[in-house]
Amino acid sequence: MTPRLLVAGVGNIFLADDSFGPEVIRALGHRPLPGEVRVHDYGIRGLDLAYDLLAGYATAILVDAAPRGHRPGTLTLLEAEPPDGTVTPEAHGMDPAKVLALAAHLGDEPLPRILVLACEPAVLPERDDEVLPGLSAPVREAVGRAVDALHTLVPVLLADPAAPAPPLGRPVENGHPRAAALPALPTAAAEDR
Q: pTM above 0.90?
């Protein structure tokens, strides 16, 4: 069976809560998603993800840590807007907006629908050279909730890739459509419950 949906864990395992995406992918090993879903830990390999976004998936869900101004451990579901040419593509690194811009630059086909399941980090390194392995307690707790959210979300998207994302319930927020998980974006109007 050819996968129709991609669940991509992104983040650096040596940068504290940035390892949220890879940890969720690891947890899915104990609670697998259906066979129509490809689950993969991309870590910081943005070029690999960019090419895979061109592989014919109807939908891709990026699982990542993203500061959005909420309590640590809060999950946010965002729908990424297609790249509009204002972000410079980058082949090295894992900035989601730059990866989407690279994928759009590399391919002639439209990108799949991109959703971002983001977790508010509590601990991120203060310097680029600082190594802080391991998740903070609130983000570690959010890993199980993210797996639950994916098990809710994936069947809906497999049935209809254009379907509105179902509400994820407390303590999560559904964001309005916007660019993928960019820390500089203003927070969505939805509140921490």
A: no
Bridge partners of 119, per DSSP, are: 65, 75
Highest mean pLDDT among 161-165, 168-172, 174-178: 161-165
3-state SS record for the chain: CCCCEEEEEECCCCEHHHHHHHHHHHHHCCCCCCCCEEEEEEECEHHHHHHHCCCCCCEEEEEEECCCCCCCCCEEEEECCCCCCCCCCCCCECCHHHHHHHHHHHCCCCCCEEEEEEECCCCCCCCCCCCECCCCHHHHHHHHHHHHHHHHHHHHHHHCCCCCCCCCCCCEEECCCCCCCCCCCCCCCCCCC
